[in-house]
Amino acid sequence: MTSLRFSSRAAFDAALAALPGPDLAAREAAAARQAQLTKPAGSLGRLEEIALFLAGWHGAERPRIARGRAVVFAGNHGVAARGVSAFPVEVTAQMVANFAGGGAAINALARAAGLALSVVPLELDRPTADFTQGPAMDEADCLAALDAGAQAVGDADLLVLGEMGIGNTTAAAALAAASFGGSAADWVGPGTGVDPAGIARKVGAVDAALAAHAGALDTPFEILRRLGGREIAAMAGALLAARHARVPVVIDGFIGTAAVAPLARAVPGIVDHLLAGHVSAEPGHRRLLDRLGLRPLLALDMRLGEGSGAALAVGVIRAALATHDEMATFAEAGVAAA
Ligand SMILES: Cc1cc2ncn([C@H]3O[C@H](COP(=O)(O)O)[C@@H](O)[C@H]3O)c2cc1C
Ligand SMILES: O=C(O)c1cccnc1
């Protein structure tokens, strides 16, 4: 269980500055076991790396996922009023109702992956401010969202982070640009499917935001607060709290990855307990994963969000642990080693 609370900006900064690492002895023991399994060394490729990753964060030679959980955070964005999405803002709340009814893609994918699902709507009736005009959130708002994220980790032993928020690919592009530089056009993409005029409005919004906040985007907290949204800050809070509880996290698409960007710019090692579930079709996503040094597990041309690609990748993660746990060693099976 995580007990981390983001009661102040200083508490957030302190949590980011003191990240625990994995249990290296457990990781070593898992590597020693891998070397004895009945296969040429390295032949299971990244499945072997995933098993070692889980071993380190779970502190177990043979890690198991018993309490996998997907959490979908939802928030509304003032910048959506600038015509940056193909869909109206009402869809955020309507999709939250759909999640509750079990009818969204993430419901089906979480069930298929054996994940519990929680949905956390964050003040949908009170959109964040339009960040082209000023900060998206005040300090208390941003802290409340970070804290909602931390509380959602619960007793999960693998956490999938998802989001729902009409307009949030524009916020994600702004976060990526503020964290890693480049022009707005480098990070903006079609999102839900805007036309070229919509892309131009998105680029205009991101450029306006970068100009409006120039000189003030100097810390992870300020980047999140000024350019993020509640669901994005909640994902950041969740992954930071998960780190302190040594819970590995699977991130999803462009928006979920953008939540990591401000933290990683200041503390690159924040990505060490993360797996990138997939690379989405949103063009900025691959670029952002590259900047973070994360290699996606899947590439299926998905561009949905909700945690959908990350939930799908849990099947690969479970398979990696199954081989690690269930395969016989050379000695057990009487197979001649190299
Ligand atoms: C029905 C529907 C379900 C979704 N589920 C996730 N998203 C995705 O689309 C939104 C981001 O795209 P944009 O920035 O273009 O608004 C986010 O809510 C994201 O999760 C959805 C979008 C729609 C329309
Ligand atoms: O990359 C994503 O997750 C994504 C892309 C487009 C729209 N919603 C989400």
From TrEMBL:
It catalyses: 5,6-dimethylbenzimidazole + nicotinate beta-D-ribonucleotide = alpha-ribazole 5'-phosphate + nicotinate + H(+). Pathway: Nucleoside biosynthesis; alpha-ribazole biosynthesis; alpha-ribazole from 5,6-dimethylbenzimidazole: step 1/2. InterPro entries: Nict_dMeBzImd_PRibTrfase (IPR003200), Nict_dMeBzImd_PRibTrfase_bact (IPR017846), Nict_dMeBzImd_PRibTrfase_N (IPR023195), Nict_dMeBzImd_PRibTrfase_sf (IPR036087). The active site is at E306. Catalyzes the synthesis of alpha-ribazole-5'-phosphate from nicotinate mononucleotide (NAMN) and 5,6-dimethylbenzimidazole (DMB). Belongs to the CobT family. Keywords: Cobalamin biosynthesis, Glycosyltransferase, Transferase. One of its GO terms (biological process) is cobalamin biosynthetic process. This is Nicotinate-nucleotide--dimethylbenzimidazole phosphoribosyltransferase. It comes from the Bacteria. PANTHER family: NICOTINATE-NUCLEOTIDE--DIMETHYLBENZIMIDAZOLE PHOSPHORIBOSYLTRANSFERASE (PTHR43463). Coiled coil: none annotated. GO terms for molecular function: nicotinate-nucleotide-dimethylbenzimidazole phosphoribosyltransferase activity. HAMAP family: CobT (MF_00230). Its EC number is 2.4.2.21. The keyword Transcription regulation does not apply. It is an enzyme of class 2 (transferase).
